[in-house]
Amino acid sequence: MTAPPPVRWGFLGAGFVATLGVAPVVRESPEAVLQVVAARDLDRARSLGPVRAVTSYDEVCHADDVDIVYLSLPNDDHLPWVLAALEAGKHVLCEKPLGLDAAQVARMTAAAEASGTLLVEAAWNRWHPRTHRFEEIVHAISGPLDVRSWFTFPGVPADNYRLDPARGGGALLDVGCYALAGALMSLGDDASVTTAEHHVGPTGVDLTTSATLESARGAAAVTGSFERPESQGLTVTAPGISVEAANPAFTSWREGAELQVVEDGVERVETFEACDAYLLMVEAVSRRARGEDAWVLPLSTSLAVARAVDEVASLAGAS
């Protein structure tokens, strides 16, 4: 049986994640080919190793030899370029957060439905086998659940867009959305935010945001921060059982990973071989773009996280 041709990828942006995470696996995967990269700096675009490099994002969106557009741009650029790519008939994989708020995610979802194309948020950790296993275990627990989810690290360079409120900066939209996604994965997408507070830095973005959520399944406490010691955690505790994704909970990359489970007083450690979740994501999106069966993060999940972000921002701003 002849293998299907590789899916042709076009990149908008050649930043850190595109360079170190996504471009190498697109080049490596037999499912994909890195056809073109667009960046303001042509040499930087060439450094990712595409078939060709350009400086025009619009050229990539309308290229006849591109099937999927991958966006690795600052947060405020997601909406216009996702819409441009979808309207040009391209499938789209966009870095998280998909939108600055739920209204933007809903608008993108409607555009994808109207164009009949695939739109996926590149929350790459959701493709990791440990994440799927964590979700499987937690969904089998009757509850009530006590969830703790956090992602913190100290310091963002002064000239980085993450400190610019006009560009969608702040800890909530950067690392906080990982923590919120972990809480919703455990409690359900219908969980509501009950309290929220943030510490705003001199540039006007939140440097630390903490919140609590509740649903019929239990409660969660989440934190995202640019000013606390480096740490990632996702734990669920319920009567007779606890489950913990060992640090790093969200960004395990090309290294072994573990789940620590204590059930009825008996501890076990489930281990997962080193893998590259970027590769698993790219291959799944490539297969779906060809019309094949492969799991991708549902837009309903992206919308639920965006709504939670909105709720947290609203409550924190009012506190």
Structure summary:
This protein is an alpha/beta fold and 319 residues long. It is built from 9 helices and 14 strands. The chain is globular.
Please describe what this structure looks like.
This protein has helices spanning 16-28, 42-46, 57-61, 78-87, 102-115, 129-139, 171-187, 277-289, 299-318; strands at residues 7-12, 32-38, 52-54, 68-71, 91-94, 119-121, 145-154, 192-200, 206-215, 218-225, 227-238, 241-245, 257-263, 266-272. The chain has nine helices and 14 strands. The protein folds into two domains: 7-122, Rossmann fold (3-Layer(aba) Sandwich); 125-279 and 304-318, Dihydrodipicolinate Reductase, domain 2, CATH 3.30.360.10. The relative contact order is 0.15. A hairpin with a 2-residue loop joins strand 11 and strand 12 (241-245). The mean pLDDT is 96. It has an eight-stranded mixed sheet, with helices on one face. The chain has a six-stranded parallel sheet with strand order 3-2-1-4-5-6, sandwiched between helices. It is α/β, with parallel strands linked by helices. It is globular. Helix 1 (16-28) crosses helix 8 (277-289).
Reconstruct the topology from this structure:
Blueprint: E1 7-12, H1 16-28, E2 32-38, H2 42-46, E3 52-54, H3 57-61, E4 68-71, H4 78-87, E5 91-94, H5 102-115, E6 119-121, H6 129-139, E7 145-154, H7 171-187, E8 192-200, E9 206-215, E10 218-225, E11 227-238, E12 241-245, E13 257-263, E14 266-272, H8 277-289, H9 299-318
Parallel strand pairs: 1-2, 1-4, 2-3, 4-5, 5-6, 7-10
Antiparallel strand pairs: 7-11, 8-9, 9-10, 11-12, 12-13, 13-14
Helix pairs in contact: 1-8, 4-5, 5-9, 7-9
